Amino acid sequence: APGRSVEKAVLAAAEEQEAEKRRSITVEKELELEFDLGNLLALDRNPPRRRRCAGGPRREALSAAERAGGAGARWAQLPEPTFRLPREKPPPKPRPPTRWEQFARLKGIRRKKKTSLVWDEQAKEWRRRWGYRRAGGDPSRAWLAEVPAGADPEEDQFARLRREKRERVARNELNRLRNLARAHRAADRDELRQVARVARVSTASLGRFQPRLPKEPSELPSRSGGKKRRFEPLLGNLAAERSRQLEMLRDMGKKKPVLDITRAVNKQLRQEEAEAAAANKGKKQSKRGKRGRRQQRPGRSGKKSGARRQPQQQKPAGGGTGGGKRKKA
Amino acid sequence: MRPLTEAETRAVFEKLSKYIGENIQLLVDRPDGTYCFRLHRDRVYYLSEKLLKLAASVPRDSLVAPGTCFGKFTKSQKFRLSVTALDFLAPYAKYKVWVKPGSEQSFLYGNHVLKSGLGRITESTAQYQGVVVYSMADVPLGFGVAAKSTQECRKVDPLAIVVFHQADVGEYVRNEDTLT
Question: Which residues fall in a compositionally biased region of kind Basic residues (chain A) (predicted)?
């Protein structure tokens, strides 16, 4: 019994010591820490204090995580992370569609979902639809090949099947590479050339000691074509300048389309309106006649001739005023 | 001050031709003397040979405005007409719009011309055609772009925009410091 009491006292002392040690590291928080064990993350919502201590709650939360052990190793199973960390890199760009995908979209062809296993009647079991040990048997591994009608009887049908398969595989590979090339194709030849030109002179020696690429021209043309910007003299040949400008004006006039569609449509509309008006005129002769006469009068007629009814052609107001204005300028 | 390059000349002519069409020839080839376009501080000036020779002796920094400013080139090398070109657009304009006295003021304050303010419009004006705006007394007020063709103008409601405002003589007061 005395041994027991001594043991108890020692244990109590040790416990007390332990508690004393722990007191220095226990932290009171107004708000509890939030844990995201999946990311091994602790969030402290309290306002920051000057001195920070490693806290106990963290350890408790960790010890709450499911522990497991193997031969000589211990680890904890962490739950799914709840805090969503932003990703470092932008999300990858979607792969550009292959030629078949483009075509399928154009034609509205949708993929049909197919099960991977199908029932094989002969083998009486579910087998893969495609590949090794597929349902119905692999035609290239068949022990017998049918000679199609109209085929050369001397031809080796097994060899034909093998050859056709080889061709299909090769064609698929070629198409795959083509799709890759299409996805990686640079925007433009000119753009590539421009980039090459910039890259070439972007060295410390401004490209002087840069080795030449196999097909690179010896002298890359500069952006301005190697010419300095030069303008015509201010007081050069004014007559030549004028004739050049007139030539340019003639050129610009030529470029205009022969048929202006909007104008043509407007013309057609006007014609139809005029015809309709003429047809009406036959019915209500007196009124229309009067109006028509009023319209032809030059200048602005009465108050009613506003925006509602535009006169057909305004008087060319250029002429006289034009001369005056010119002198003023 | 320097002559325009070919690309610049083309830009100016293309913009002018929206308002006066092939009448640009009358500006280039004038019977009353030699006139030319010159570029100074990104602005295009239209001036006589005589004035050009006088202005050539003025230092570039001291030269404020030789001749009449037609407009300016933006930083992206587009040409914008300014209201100072109105004196040369108005006499040769191919498509015109007259505004009623009531909405003259609104236009001169920089607003678009509404159908309710439309007095007359040249027949066969296409949509987005450059037009010169006049008061009913044939005083040129500015220029703009037809928002509707003549045919459409007859049908739209009175509050619809008929001419988009581009420049008006009110700018002489409003933008006095930048008009050179």
Answer: 281-307
